[in-house]
From TrEMBL:
Keywords: Disulfide bond, Signal. The keyword Calcium does not apply. The keyword Methyltransferase does not apply. Residues 24-105 form the Saposin B-type domain. Residues 1-19 form the signal peptide. Gene3D superfamilies: Saposin-like. This is Saposin B-type domain-containing protein. InterPro entries: Saposin-like, SaposinB_dom.
Amino acid sequence: MKTSCVLAILVCVGLTVSAQDDSQEIMCQLCVGLAEEVQDIVRQDFPLDKVEEEVKETCHMWNVIPKLEQKCLEKFLPIVDEMYDKLNSTSPQKFCEFLELCLED
């Protein structure tokens, strides 16, 4: 949880400093950050409802950017099951590429 707070703050600062970043890159960074948080939970064998709780909390921290919290919830809450399953065997970057939120390396 502390990691997600720090991540959210760093993302917000980064967004403020470089407002010219492409929205694709911003969504990629946010997706990878969230996927890393979820992967930590999955690796600790927490139940699925803990993943859903983490997604909600992390998305809520993004409310400092207009409409971003809602976009986050709309994008990630419906796929919590898939996140739980895929992040057992896939890197956060690859998962976000699969969602087409990050460009393939």
